[in-house]
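Troubleshooting: if your tokenizer reports a length mismatch, compare against these two reference records.
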Amino acid sequence: MIFTSSGAGYHSESKAKEYKHACKRACQRAVDRLRAGGLALEAVTAALIELEDSPFTNAGTGSNLNLSGEIECDASIMDGKSLNYGAVGALSGIKNPVLVARRLLSETQKGKLSAGRIPPCFLVGKGAEQWAISHGIPACPSEKMTTKFSLSGYKRNKRKMELAEQVETKRKRQLCGHENDFGCLEPVGDIMVEGEENNSACLDTVGAVVVDREGNVAAAVSSGGLAMKHPGRVGQAAHYGCGCWAENARDVSLYSTAVSTSGSGEHLIRTMLARECSTAMQAENAHQALLEAMQNKFISSPFLAGEDCVLGGVIVLRCCTCGEVQRSEDIQALLVEFLWSHTTESMCVGYMSAQDSKARTHISRLPPGAVAGQSLAIEGGVCRLGTVSD
């Protein structure tokens, strides 16, 4: 089974079709791999490539531009069977960052390098790009990854920043020169960069979680990061335990879990939300466990005590073998629960099992009257013996 997200943020009705379509294509690509006998790691990689290639998502092609007008991407992937992990941060010049993360993961499984050196699992910047090319992953000029939408957004944001700087300069002059006897300085107002972390209108990280026919789980995540971010900034999509998590059950009494996060990178990093949600999924009631994790470990986290608007979302998958057929490796013997939760205004998700003829997609929204960054939505479903019910 595959469960995808094209980002937590705000999804307008006018573009809802495109975001849902991206999730559908990602699900189909992953299921095709599963039907062909592919393992979870292969399927989750296929899903992420599809999401990165969509010009409507903030990952790979169409990513936000940084302050210098360049694309720098973050991505990571984790294999629940081996517990190996690969990640890249602030990566430029590569069309599909998840492929580099996947290759890093694969290389770590081969053992030590010459002279006993330990192979890297996380590379950033120019070094990551050079490593990718040296391992057969083709380079891609940034201009080919830039879309009309991302470029126009960059130009608008640049004008807003210049205006904000002009207003701030004027404020400082008034303060120093006492130009305004009443102290009524011109307000900065709502000059906000599109895509700032406290602006949930920005669609952020894409992700996927998968369980294969053998019960192995895997998770992956990819992001273009914040609009107008400082060059070199690395978001949660590359950080261990923050962007994604996958862990096969080591005991029949435990659940296998896979998690992918989206939203405000710094908030997700400081709370290590992916791993926190995975740990919470060992409780008996998955829905209640995720609700409490999002409330206590994220919205009300002591690590975010100074924040009044905490934005993020998660997709979570957990599975276990059904009671009477615990020894079976057939996916039909698995009970799979999948849930999603978000504090942003909306989140687009898609899901599909190998027995389904097509993917199902949904744009989840906060309840009426709820405040983004302070409230949350939570939904989910169950896949049992090849049947899915919401």
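Reference record two:
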Amino acid sequence: MSQSGTQGLPIDLRGKRAFIAGVADDNGYGWAIAKALAAAGAEILVGTWVPALNIFETSLRRGKFDESRKLPDGSLMEITKVYPLDAVFDSPEDVPDDVKANKRYAGSSNWTVKEVAETVKNDFGTIDILVHSLANGPEVKNPLLETSRKGYLAAVSASSYSFISLLQHFLPIMNPGGATISLTYIASERTIPGYGGGMSSAKAALESDTRVLAYEAGRKGKIRVNTISAGPLGSRAAKAIGFIEKMIEYSYVNAPLQKELWAGRNYLLSLCLH
């Protein structure tokens, strides 16, 4: 039994602080990982895509997530702070004028990766756990043969390089012995028809980068770097693919153990930390 009273590995993260990048609602792996870490005692910070920030904070404040915030001991997951984040941009100098002028970004500041890391440092000093739950491919519905260079590079930028950027900027404020985790998908190694727009390439890059980063961050900061492939989940972001339900059904029909996939706490937590 864990410290939280749930079945699983006896993980005690009291006194640890986690930053989860890519939480914009209560229906996804990022949220589930945040809950798992909170149940183990960690302090939770989240980074939310800037255009979704207002809706997320409003829903959180009005109690719309209270049911899904419940932890095994009956308490509610507390999010210490929500940061605006757009991990496509490393620093303010990278932000194009049209994004700066976009009304969806109005009212928010310090949301590039470098700025968020600096703000977290100023607010809390250090973190122990970094979670990358980010992916986006603007042309994901396009076959690879019909994907533009711009769409392909955008998928790689948002879905794989963003992990490099996060680790690059957060590593200096991570305590030795800390851990990072990202989320990949089996399309990195097998053909998944319909999962296009360069997303399969982005996931393959993410996995390759993980191996290199594990060496570099391990030697430089004694930080563990891992990625997990948990399978298709019908999150709001995944619905952009257009046929996520068919992917879930196929996974269920062909899995050795036919169980409906859910963003389970202990499974993801154990993979994240060990």
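Descriptive notes for reference record two:
- The chain has eight helices and six strands.
- The CA atoms of residues 86 and 183 lie 17 Å apart.
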